[in-house]
Amino acid sequence: LPEIPDVTKMATIEALGYLCDSIDPDAATTNKPTVDQILNAIVQGMSHSNVEIQRAATTALYNTIAFTAANFDVEAERNAIMQATFQAAQSADMHIKKRAFDCLLEIVDNYYEVIGPVDQFMNTIYTLTTGAMGDTTNSDLARLGFEFWITVSEIESSCKENEETYCHLLE
Question: How many Cα neighbours within 13 Å face the side chain of 11?
Fold first, then answer.
């Protein structure tokens, strides 16, 4: 097969992102093989050598998070998504980094019960967010770091009130 030009890869990933943003999350969960293919393309794009493709892929990931519940239920898939997000959160490109923090916020808001108890995730997130909060050169990034922990605090408070079993940080 001929090599696909980067501009085509970027346009395809952007289109996937826009498509995912417009899909009803409940309808998407019924077709896991399709979601798997979309996520695979996006995660591959996030590690591409072309920064524009990485940007498009990180934005596309943000747009898919709402309907990836079945993927977050599978440890290997959850790990792949989280590792791609962590990698993007450490990018030298500020657009990628900010979008990755947006992804972390969306992930914690939707899937806290599966990522919160995993110490390796929370330890990495702690390192990334405290680094962002201490970044005096970028107030948007610092704000996203703070927003992450505010969201976690709200989730923990709510699950304590409702006596949910996945509460663990405020014990």
Answer: 5
Q: Where does 75-138 have alpha helices with state H?
A: 75-89, 94-115, 119-133
* Closest alpha carbon to 87 in 99, 71, 105, 76: 99
136: which DSSP letter?
T
- Long-range CB contacts (within 8 A, 24+) of 84-87: 84/42, 84/43, 84/46, 84/47, 85/61, 86/124, 86/128, 87/46, 87/47
Tokens representing residue 75 in the block: 């440890």
Handedness of CA 20, 24, 25, 28 (dihedral sign): negative
The answer to whether the CB of 169 falls within 8 A of the CB of 156 is yes
Q: pLDDT tier at 9 (50, 70, 90 boundaries)?
A: very high
**78 near 71, Cβ under 8 Å?**
yes
Burial class (CB in 10 A: 0-12, 13-18, 19+), 5: exposed
Q: Tens digit of pLDDT for each residue in 65-84? A: 988 888 999 999 999 999 99
The SS3 call for residue 112 is helix
Are the beta carbons of 13 and 60 closer than 8 angstroms?
Answer: yes
For the cut 70, the answer to whether the pLDDT of residue 46 exceeds it is yes
Structure tokens at 160: 């304590």
